[in-house]
Here is the input.
Amino acid sequence: MRLRLFQTHKLNESKEDCQDWFAKNEANQSLALSDGMSSSVFQKEWAQLLTESFVKDENWSPDNLENRKEISAKWIEDIKGVIEKREKDGLKTWNQKKILAERTSGCATFLGVRIKDKELLYEVLGDTALVVLDGSKISSIITSQPEGEEFDNFPDYYDSYPDKPGKGTLKRGEIEIKDGISFLMVSDPFSDFLDKKKKEGDDEKWVNKLLNIDYQADFEDLVEEWRKNDGLKNDDSTLIIIDECGEPDFKVQSSDPKEQALQAQQENEKLREENNVLKANNAAIDAENKTCKAQIASLNEECSQNKGVISKLKEQVVGLQDEIDKLSKTIEQFYASIFGRLYHLFCEKR
Here is the structure.
């Protein structure tokens, strides 16, 4: 299973300003994507806690209140850490302190995916979407938003304070992984864009452009072009492509050409090492085979020698039997002679 991960920020902002956050765990085959809402505070930190908690523990879900209480405490500690650092740097902290005092929320959408037993299990809240593809055709776009509702600036979300209601209800489901099926995990600019193209019946053209992306630079060029010419919303944009679903393990493909070349080199080195191990194993097996053949030859020779000894012993046994037979006849003759003489003596005395 191949993963390609791409992300870029709003126009005229920097990478550090991006409020989307994704996390992955190749060991338990979990992925998560969250979009921190710009109308809230410390939203990126909240999105990070949601996603990284999900992929760390395969039984963790953001819909569990106790789970959210735990990461809410961490989120508050993060803000306190920012206040402490700013104070050390001689910077003003009144705004951060006000955020804590007034319990101003961080808000974020959520999409979590786990691969288990040839099924993709998903949990989604908000307009961060799971797009199911059959070939290059969109089969479905899965969000927690009500069916037919237009994408807007007020999606469902998790609040960083568990005692606050947030918005919406988590949607769960499972999808059988079959040949020809692939998936996109996307933040809301792509959710909205692909939903419109699907309704227009023109989705294959745009999906193919996404599936053909291999490098971060190509992704950024496509986002810039679609923003300028095709109506893609200017917002933080994340795209995760999950394809080659017939393979059992995650294989994360780097979006950087140099890193891809390095990955290929590392894979070749790994294959060479595995090949060397196989050669060493084969050599050891050959040596064991030679030893076994030598032992078998030695045993065969011993068997041949033993056969000769047994044959001689048989001959000796036959010879001994003949001697015994002769001795038995001699004894019989001796006893017959004795009994004959005794009989004559007995008769003479009478």
About this structure: The chain has one domain: 2-255. The two ends are 122 Å apart (CA to CA). DSSP finds seven helices and 13 strands in the chain. The chain has a mean pLDDT of 88.
